[in-house]
Structures are given as structure tokens and as C-alpha cells.
Amino acid sequence: MRRFVFGIGLCASVFCFCFPIMATTIMVTTTNNLSPATGEVSLAQALQNAQSGDTIAFNIPGPGPQYIVTPSPAGYSPITGDNIIIDGYTQPGAVPNANPILAANNAKIKIFLDSREGGRTVLNFDGYGNSEAAILPVVGATNVTVRGLGFLARIADNTAEDPSIYCVAFGAKAMSGHVNGCWMGVDADGRSVFGANAGITGFRYRENGISFLVDNMVLGVEPNAIKPEAQFNVIAGMKIPIGIEGNNTRISGNFIGVLPNGTNEFNNTAAGLPNEGAIQIGRTDGGTIIGTDGDGVNDAAERNVFAGVTPKTVDPVNGYDHLIEFYGSGQRTNIVIAGNYIGVGIDGATRFTNGAPVISGLTATARIGSDFDAVSDTVEGNVIFNNFPASVFQGDVVVKDFLEDVSEDAIISLRGNKLVNNFTPPVSPLRDDGAFLTAYYSKAILDPESGIAPTLSDSTSVTRLIGTIPVADTNSYPLAVIDLYTADPEGMAAGQAEAVPQLPNGFVQGLIYLGSFFEGSAIDLDPAPGKFSFNIGALNIPVGTRLTITANYSQDRLGTHNAATLTTLFSNPVVAKEGSPISEPPGPLSVVVSGNSVRVTFTGVLQSAASIEGPWNDVSGAANPYTTPLDQRTRFFRARSL
């Protein structure tokens, strides 16, 4: 019910009764946008009449799916009201997805907005132009939600005569939108693909010299969602699946370039269609989260599953340079890319065509993988497969970058990921003939000219981890953490086949994360700066395992969420020899994080506390060694004498 004002004259007095605006549900009952029958309501009518706070629902007769052809040529009226919801799951028979992200998407979409015949709304205002259009345009509105809809279109020419088609476009001061539970470019059968120029866009708008960004967008799972699985999107067949210019963009719980079954990709390049990666984030774009935020709530459901990118070295016309792109000005601080499956299906084994750098344009602090703050650490690691199929990605087509166009000032953490056959991560040792690498690490390492990668000793065994790391400038980076991995054999073999002189061991990277150790701590049995010797017998590593490490220099204390951490290249791989039992005590206290547990070895009585200041309490019944699951709490341990 809307606001009504009644003026009633009584004895020269006027009484005004004001009722507040109340949200209305507008029910769409027909697919006929051109000439709905008397008593029917079309989507075109609903969008034209919708005001702030309204919900557009659906109750179209018939089993469906229902295909609503976009009016041509003018398209739909822009959505201009705040807090409007368009909910395709209100259509009888429509069902949101109920499976986890690493399973097939089983949503039943019953309402499809069909622009295959070209219907669209031209976005002729700043940020867009008369060569760009949308199926659903959101213009100047805040907090608009689009859920449970299918979108079908084609990739247009991007001209005034044939404007680009975007499924949902936000602009002209629009912000805080939420798009969830939608299938974009994928028909009801889950196999037929009819993509558009873009899935979801939101571009900067300028007025009187002031720029307005499309901030606080949520594409997929919102924070603290009650049913996160119902908010997963499937986006395939797009030239650009997602393009947003704004701060605090959240992209979580999406299949991008991946069909609903989770193990089949739709590769635009292979289909002879243009593609520009998966995600483009522009302008001042700090606070972007792609994947899990690591807050302990719905973290596993916040992963994204990405198909790969065919690079221009393979297809100069339809290939692209990278998967995720940051562009334009801005510091881009606090970028988190965590928990994603990239270049591989939901089973962690089915490979997608992929051969481009993962990310382009990082300029400030970014976390790729886990922050090891004891909250969802194993979920936060990305799974990244690259340079596949091998028959294609060899020789000159192999792109010599893992991260493209990294700024010299960037601080990038790369921890806890599963990496398979990527070019040497995180930054290319070949860039500027190695000069960039030296400059990049000079912010943390005292003498980068003496080496910027850690080394493992050939004496490393299954009980003893021995090696060196570059000595850090402890005034800026007081904490040095060594991450231990099994080495990826595929990347090593592929890199050795390329015979890059600077990379005699091939593309060395971590396949399986095993644990972390703190150089210079009580359990480091080599006291010399930059040298280490750790007892790793508790990890039960099989003899003959090929190991590699990274050094991670942190500006923040251990366990800090999103700590600013600089990760080195991976070390030379070493085969772990058979080792003798270690006779010397491991020190009064040692802590090893492995998988989902923390193992504490101690002498005396083990105590724990929630903060370093205490209060400290004996851990009841703690036997040496003491193993406890990782949880959301910050915990400190110490040993006291008997």
C-alpha cells in the first residue's frame, strides 16, 4: 500500500492522515510483453511500475521453463527504485540449488529472460554509451537484488547499430546490488549456451567532476547467508563474465565459464567467440574478495570454480592475457583471492583448457590463499591448474608469468595453495632479465643481490628440514615463516622441457602444503640468522618425497587475519632422505600447523591463553605431543616447568 493523503474540512480545520509507504509485490503472470491480456501483468509492466521496496514475483501458468522475450528494440524500463527485489524463485516449480559448491548445481530455473533476438535497453549515460545495453539495467538505485533468473542472449558487435548486451548492468550511482542464484548464458538443460557480451557489469559514473563507483556489490553468496547454496550463480559463454568498477566487491560461490555439472567448461575461444577472462575489477578497487573471506562462516560455500583462459599466444583473435584483471588507478589494498578452483572442475581432477596468468595488475596488499590465522585455513588455499592440455601448451605459447603486471610496491602472499603446472610463482624471475625480482623483494630482504629464494640442503631428510632463507629486514618484516610443501612434478617436468636457463629445476611450485615453521624460534636448531634446522619427524613424510619451501615475511604478528605477507619464490626441490631419529630435544615448545590440526611438542606443563597477556591456564590432560583441531579462536601456548 502506498502513501495516500486525505484532506477533510471540518469547521475550517484541515486534518491530514498520512500512511507510510509499504512494499508491494507485483506478480508477473504472462510471458507476453507486447500485448498482455486484460488482468495479466507482464514483466515489462512490472518493471515500469516498480517503486522502491517492491518485489517482482512470478506466477506464470504452465510447467515451464518460461521464456520471456525482451521487448525489441527498446528493452525494459530501467530499475531506478531502491531495495527492489526481482525473484525468479517465486515461479511455481523453480527451486534454488541445494548442493555444495564442489558438486553439480541442481537449481531449477523456470524464468528465462531471452534477448537472443536482440531486445535490450541502451545505456546511454556516463560510464556506458550508446554501444552498450542491458537486459536488466539498474540505474541510480541502491540495494537491488536479482535472483533466480536465467539470462539468454548473444555476443553483439558493440556498435551503436548492434550494442553490446549485458545481462545485468549497474550504473549512474547504482551500488550495493546483489545478484544470486542465477544462470547466465546457460539454458534450462544445463548444456546449451547462449552467452552475452557480459554477465554482470557496474561502471563508474561521473557528474560535475565527481566520480561515483559501483561499491559494495555482492555477486553470489552474501556474508552470513542462511542458505548460501541457494545463492550460487552459473555464468558461462560470456565475453566478460563480470566487470565491476568499485570498492568492496564480493564474488563468492560462482561457476564462471563452467556448466552446472561442474566438470564441463564452455570455452569461448574454442567456440570461435571472444573472451576477456573471467573477472575485471577497475578503478579504486580495494577490499575485493574473490572466493572465501575466511571469517569462519560459510567459507567452504564461498569458493568459486573457474574455467581457464586460452592465451593470445594460442589464439591472437579470441584469446586473452589473464583470468582476473585489476585495472585503472587506486591502491587495491586488501585484495583476497582464496578457496577457488581455477582451471579444474569440482572434482579437483577434471582439467579445463588454461594457459594464462591467474591475475593481472596487483599493486598493493593481496592474499592469494590462506592467511593461517587458524580460521578455515585449509579452505582458503586455492587449487590452480595451468598449461593444459600439454599438447597445446608447450614451446613459445607458454606464457612466462603466474601473476602479470605486478607492481614493484605490491606485497603478495601466496600460501597454502595447491599449484599444478603453473609458470614459476609468484612473480616471474625472467621479468626485466631478473631486475624486477630483485627490486620487488628488496622491500623485505636485506641483501636481495645475494639471492631472493630460500634453499633446501641436500641433507634434508624425513626427520630434519635444513636450509636457508634470505635474511629479512626485521624492522619492517619481523616475522619469517617457512612453508613446507611437496613439489609439483608436472610443473618441474614441463619447465625442464622448456629448458629455461634461469629455471634449471623447471616450474617449481607447491603441490601439497605440509606445515609451517618459524625461523629463529625456539624449535629452530640452527641459531644463525637466515639458517634453519627443524625436526619434522612428526609430519611422517615418506622417504623419497620431493620437498620445496617458501619464505614468508610478515609485517604482522602470527595469526593475524589478512596479514601483510610477502612470499618468495619456491626453493630448489630436494628429495627427502631416510632420517635417523632425532635425539636432541626440540626445545621447550614447538608448534606445527598441519592440515586441520595444530601439534604442540613441549617440555614441562602445557598452558594456553586467548591472548599473549593471559590469563594462562594449564591444558587439562595434555600429553606430549598435544594435538588440537584448528578452530576460530586465537590461542597462545607456552610451557612452564614442572
Task: List descriptors.
mainly beta; 11-stranded parallel beta sheet; 48 strands; 3 domains; 4 helices; disordered N terminus; 10-stranded parallel beta sheet; 642 residues
Description:
There is one protein chain. The protein is mostly beta strands. It folds into 3 domains: 25-423; 436-575, no CATH class; 596-640, no CATH class. The protein has 4 helices and 48 strands. The chain has an 11-stranded parallel β-sheet, with helices on one face. A hairpin with a 2-residue loop joins strand 43 (589-594) and strand 44. The longest helix has 10 residues, at 489-498. It is elongated. The termini are far apart. The relative contact order is 0.07. The model is unreliable at 1-19 (pLDDT under 50).
Quick synopsis:
The chain has 642 residues and is mostly beta strands. It is 4% helix and 32% strand.
